[in-house]
């Protein structure tokens, strides 16, 4: 735990020195979601296994990376896929890039392409 705190302190100190034109600090979690926090007046604190950046809180083990950015990269627009959307699928791929059919879908994550857009889908 001490190593993580030391690493984050060094990382923030290093990044702050290079962050001149960046307006957001973006956090990416292990599931790919992103949350951006304005760097203006930003304070970071760690309590146990939780990192708090401004109004956002993150579990340290769920963070995959953090970086400065010029735009708000917060993940939005997550929608639930219905069976109708899956029936309209033109292509379905597993995460290794192999094309699969609906019948071949088992537990896992898939990329589903339809005429309306492309979706990431989790089959439980």
Folded structure, characterized:
This protein has 124 residues and is an alpha+beta fold. 18% of the residues lie in helices and 37% in strands. It is built from two helices and nine strands; from the N terminus they run H-E-E-E-E-E-E-H-E-E-E. The protein has a three-stranded antiparallel sheet, with no helix packed on it. The longest helix is centred in the first third of the chain and has 17 residues, at 2-18. It is elongated, with a radius of gyration of 19 Å. The two termini are 33 Å apart.
Key descriptive features of the protein:
elongated; single chain; 2 helices; 124 residues; alpha+beta
Order of helices and strands: HEEEEEEHEEE
Mean pLDDT, nearest integer?
81
- Helix/strand structural class: alpha+beta
- Count of runs of 4 or more consecutive helical residues: 2
Spatial extent as radius of gyration: 19 Å
Q: Which term fits the overall shape? A: elongated
Residue share in helices? 10-25%
Major sheet = 3 strands, antiparallel
How many beta strands in the DSSP annotation? 9
Enumerate the spans where pLDDT stays under 50 for 5 or more consecutive residues.
none
- Cα-to-Cα separation, first versus last residue: 33 Å
List the helices and strands and how they pair.
Layout: H1 2-18, E1 24-29, E2 34-38, E3 44-47, E4 50-53, E5 56-59, E6 63-69, H2 83-87, E7 91-94, E8 108-113, E9 118-123
Antiparallel strand pairs: 1-2, 1-6, 3-4, 4-5, 7-8, 8-9
